[in-house]
Amino acid sequence: MKPITLKEIADQLNISISTVSRALSDHPRISRTTKQAVQALAKELNFQPNPLAMNLRMQRTQTIGVIVPKISYAFYASAITGIEAIAIREGYNIVICQSNESYEQEVANIKSLLLSRVDGVIVSLAGETKQYDHFQEVLNRGVPLVFFNRVCPELPVSQVVIDNFSAAAQAVSSLIQHGYQRIGLLAGPSTIEISNERLRGYQQMLAQHQLPFDPSLVAHCDYSESDGYDQTVHLLQLPNPPNAIFAVSDRLAIAALQALRDRDIRIPEDIALVGFNNDPVTAVVSPPLTTIDQNPEQMGETAAHLLFQQLCDSKTDIEQVVLKTQLLERNSVKK
Amino acid sequence: MKPITLKEIADQLNISISTVSRALSDHPRISRTTKQAVQALAKELNFQPNPLAMNLRMQRTQTIGVIVPKISYAFYASAITGIEAIAIREGYNIVICQSNESYEQEVANIKSLLLSRVDGVIVSLAGETKQYDHFQEVLNRGVPLVFFNRVCPELPVSQVVIDNFSAAAQAVSSLIQHGYQRIGLLAGPSTIEISNERLRGYQQMLAQHQLPFDPSLVAHCDYSESDGYDQTVHLLQLPNPPNAIFAVSDRLAIAALQALRDRDIRIPEDIALVGFNNDPVTAVVSPPLTTIDQNPEQMGETAAHLLFQQLCDSKTDIEQVVLKTQLLERNSVKK
DNA sequence: TTGTAAGCGTTATCAA
DNA sequence: TTGATAACGCTTACAA
Question: What span, in angstroms and rounded, lies between the C-alpha atoms of B250 and B253?
Answer without folding.
Answer: 5
